[in-house]
Design goal:
- This protein has 134 residues and is mainly alpha-helical.
- It has a single domain (2-107), classed as Large-conductance mechanosensitive channel, MscL, domain 1 (Non-ribosomal Peptide Synthetase Peptidyl Carrier Protein, Chain A), CATH 1.10.1200.
- Helices cover 69% and strands 5% of the residues.
- The chain has 4 helices and 2 strands, in the order H-H-E-E-H-H.
- It has helices at residues 2-12, 15-50, 74-102, 116-131; strands spanning 60-63, 70-72.
- It has a two-stranded antiparallel sheet.
- Helix 2 (15-50) crosses helix 3 (74-102).
- The longest helix has 36 residues, at 15-50.
- The protein is elongated.
């Protein structure tokens, strides 16, 4: 049992698991922001453009059975699609920003270090040039 607990602790304390847990928590909080953006800002704007009070009321009657009629609720689906697109867009923008911040600035190239043989040859060349009057 001790070995099991030790292995579980090693698993749970890995960086990836912790990062995933933090990501899930931030994602849950982020979902409420996006839901508010969609429900409180975008849906009323779109509703006013199309003169529809509420997307959830958009539906098609498939089978008329009085009170137990069957409807195709495409308005609720549209709202879910809008939510998905906004969440995906926001995540894309966040990842793009993080990647841009993570990019390391290119280091200035250092001149290659010359070997002792190359330095000696350069000195010989300069001495010969001086001797020949160049």
């Amino acid at each position: 049992m001790k070995n099991f607990l030790k292995e579980f602790k090693q698993f749970a304390m890995r960086g990836n698991v912790i990062d995933l847990a933090v990501g899930v928590m931030i994602g849950a909080a982020f979902q409420s922001i996006v839901a508010s953006l969609v429900n409180d800002i975008l849906t009323p704007l779109i509703s006013s453009i199309f003169r529809i009070d509420d997307f959830s009321t958009l539906r098609i009657l498939l089978l008329d059975r009085g009170e137990s009629s069957v409807y195709l609720n495409y308005g609720t689906f549209l709202q879910s699609v809008i939510n998905f697109i906004l969440v995906a867009l926001c995540i894309f923008l966040i990842v793009k920003t993080i990647n841009r911040l993570k990019k390391e600035k290119p280091k200035p190239e250092e001149e290659p270090k010359l070997s002792s043989e190359t330095i000696a040859l350069n000195k010989i060349i300069s001495l010969l040039e001086e001797k020949n009057g160049r």
